[in-house]
Amino acid sequence: MKTESIETRSPGETEAFAAKLAASLPFGSVLALYGDLGAGKTVFARGFARGMNITEPISSPTFTILQEYPADGKFFYHLDLYRIDNSDAAYAFGIDEFLYAEDAMTLIEWPERIEDILP
Fold first, then answer.
1. Cβ atoms within 10 Å, residue 32
2. Each residue of 53-84: pLDDT tens digit?
3. Which among 17, 81, 98 is positioned nearest to 50, based on CA atoms?
4. What contacts 99, CB < 8 A, 6 or more positions away?
């Protein structure tokens, strides 16, 4: 697993970085976002979606676990695993479908809950 840390200084800077990153990655990519509550993970997700030409509002899927957005015939999967205890619970809702989706970009908030199964 490749790990990289980037520091931004404002929500706008975070969104701009995320949009640029989304435009540069191949479909099938999985991004794991680490950070405390309020660190800007959902702000990053909003910018990432814009970089994929998604214009609909992006919200945190804390209670739904998953938000799915169409993106030019492909998909953006935004997962928030805050309420998931471990990888067994993630497998129970079918997370493997999102970790290995070649026609999508998958962004995971609170990935530490499933580190043992991240690609």
1. 20
2. 999 999 888 888 999 999 989 999 999 999 99
3. 17
4. 30, 106, 117, 118, 119
pTM of the model: 0.90
Specify the length of the chain in residues: 119
Per-residue burial over 41-66, b if 16 or more Cβ lie within 10 Å, else e, is bbbbbbbbbbbbebeeebebbeeebb
Nearest residue to 119 (alpha-carbon basis) of 87, 83, 82: 87
Show the tokens assigned to 92.
């129970």
The strand pair at 104-109 and 74-80 is best described as parallel
Rounded distance between C-alpha atoms, residue 91 and residue 51, angstroms: 29
Give the max Cα distance, the chain. Answer: 37
Sheet containing 30-33, strands listed edge to edge, beginning at the edge strand earlier in sequence: 30-33, 104-109, 74-80, 66-71
Burial group, residue 99, by CB count within 10 angstroms (0-12, 13-18, 19+): middle
CB 42 within 8 A of CB 60: yes
